[in-house]
């Protein structure tokens, strides 16, 4: 099995743990998620975040809830878990991996509804472990496939955090850098701070520093100037949901980067596993974009930076149209032609 670079979430002796991403990099605090409510809260309040990581923790959350149910009534057991799955689906709307993982857990219940409760409990745990391991494996392959794009002396820009913390532990965009570093390539990563909650400044820098990868932190509004100076050779970000035509939802600010990249003739890549591709959605218009609390914009790390009643608009994601994307770095290779990778 591929080893995670970062211990983002883990299952140990029937208990579910995560690293609390709200307090990084100052504190490395571990949280135990004890019930389905804890799992829902941890996703909603960003203790755990990033599309694949949300999917993995939700799958383990379903298992956790199943193990805690003490009943001999098979139908009631399945009904309660299905209602927990429905509940977890309301935690955040955009990342497709959440729905991908929960649908897999649901399928176990449907396919094996005539099996005993104890058998089902074990099978649900196995499915959660499979989802977690498959993600690690996909991310590792994304790293290998993407590292071919990295050449010595390149400057690559990334946005938000698509690292180990956003996945089962190996990352998507950052997996490319981890692998390129192992191959002894010399490059620098420009890290957008990523307002409002600073996943770039707090989390991506923390991961790159740990991995010994040279990086430079910039404010989001500096990226255009750097491109104009010719100091960005490539952009790689992750994704939260990719529609059938290749339109991609990712952290707010990604679309502006892609437009700037087009203007400055900088290659713009998305790194994502197939579990982020939503075959049911034709184009980006159908991707639900989460709107988050106004306080995230009025404050930075809990401190007001605007009038306390300032009217706010806070979409957490934006949609980058497929024609602005040079390619998708996946576990199967780099897909250069937007659209057409999903049949039907
Ligand atoms: O709101 P977040 O922090 O969950 O948003 C995360 C992102 O937008 C990431 O870039 C995306 O999930 C890719 S993670 C491999």
Description of the structure:
The protein is α/β, with parallel strands linked by helices and 344 residues long. The chain folds into 2 domains: 9-140, Up-down Bundle (Four Helix Bundle (Hemerythrin (Met), subunit A)); 150-335, Rossmann fold (3-Layer(aba) Sandwich), CATH 3.40.50.10470. It contains 10 helices and 15 strands. The protein has a 7-stranded mixed beta sheet, with helices on both faces. Helix 2 runs antiparallel to helix 3 (74-88) and helix 4 packs antiparallel against helix 5 (117-147). The mean pLDDT is 96. Bound molecules: 5-S-methyl-1-O-phosphono-5-thio-D-ribulose. 5-S-methyl-1-O-phosphono-5-thio-D-ribulose binds at residues 49-52, 95, 160, 162, 166-167, 172, 199, 237-240, 250-251, 316. The site of 5-S-methyl-1-O-phosphono-5-thio-D-ribulose (MRU) has 18 residues, from helix 2 and strand 9.
Outline the fold blueprint:
Layout: E1 9-12, E2 15-19, E3 30-33, H1 36-44, H2 51-68, H3 74-88, H4 96-111, H5 117-147, E4 154-158, H6 173-182, E5 187-192, H7 199-211, E6 215-218, H8 223-228, E7 234-237, E8 241-242, E9 248-251, H9 254-263, E10 267-271, H10 295-298, E11 299-300, E12 303-304, E13 317-320, E14 327-330, E15 333-335
Parallel strand pairs: 4-5, 4-7, 5-6, 7-10, 10-14
Antiparallel strand pairs: 1-2, 2-3, 8-9, 9-13, 11-12, 14-15
The structure holds 5-S-methyl-1-O-phosphono-5-thio-D-ribulose (MRU).
5-S-methyl-1-O-phosphono-5-thio-D-ribulose (MRU) binds next to helix 2 and strand 9.
């Amino acid at each position: 099995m591929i080893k995670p670079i970062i211990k983002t979430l883990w299952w140990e002796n029937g208990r579910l743990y995560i690293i609390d991403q709200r307090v990084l990099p100052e504190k490395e605090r571990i949280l135990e998620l004890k019930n389905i409510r804890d799992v829902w809260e941890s996703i909603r309040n960003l203790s755990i975040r990033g599309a694949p990581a949300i999917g993995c923790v939700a799958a383990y959350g379903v298992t956790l809830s199943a193990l805690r149910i003490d009943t001999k009534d098979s139908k009631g057991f399945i009904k309660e878990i299905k209602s927990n799955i429905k509940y977890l689906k309301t935690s955040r709307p955009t990342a497709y991996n959440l729905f991908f993982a929960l649908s897999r857990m649901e399928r176990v219940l449907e396919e094996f509804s005539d099996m005993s409760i104890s058998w089902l409990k074990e099978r649900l745990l196995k499915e959660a472990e499979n989802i977690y391991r498959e993600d690690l494996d996909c991310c590792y392959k994304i790293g290998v496939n993407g590292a071919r794009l990295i050449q010595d002396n390149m400057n690559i820009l990334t946005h938000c955090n698509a690292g180990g913390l956003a996945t089962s532990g190996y990352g998507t965009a950052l997996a490319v850098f981890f692998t390129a570093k192992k191959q002894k390539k010399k490059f620098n990563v420009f890290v957008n701070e990523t307002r409002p909650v600073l996943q770039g400044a707090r989390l991506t820098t923390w991961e790159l520093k740990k991995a010994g990868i040279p990086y430079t932190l910039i404010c989001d509004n500096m990226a255009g100037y750097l491109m104009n100076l010719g100091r960005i050779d490539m952009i790689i970000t992750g994704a939260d949901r990719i529609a059938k035509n290749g339109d991609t939802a990712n952290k707010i600010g990604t679309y502006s980067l892609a437009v700037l990249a087009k203007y400055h003739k900088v290659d713009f890549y998305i790194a994502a596993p197939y579990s982020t591709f939503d075959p049911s959605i034709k184009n980006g218009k159908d991707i639900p974009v989460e709107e988050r609390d106004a306080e995230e914009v009025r404050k930075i790390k809990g401190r007001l930076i605007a009038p306390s009643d300032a009217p706010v608009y806070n979409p957490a994601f934006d949609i980058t149209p497929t024609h602005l994307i040079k390619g998708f770095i996946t576990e199967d290779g780099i897909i250069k032609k937007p659209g057409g990778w999903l049949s039907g």
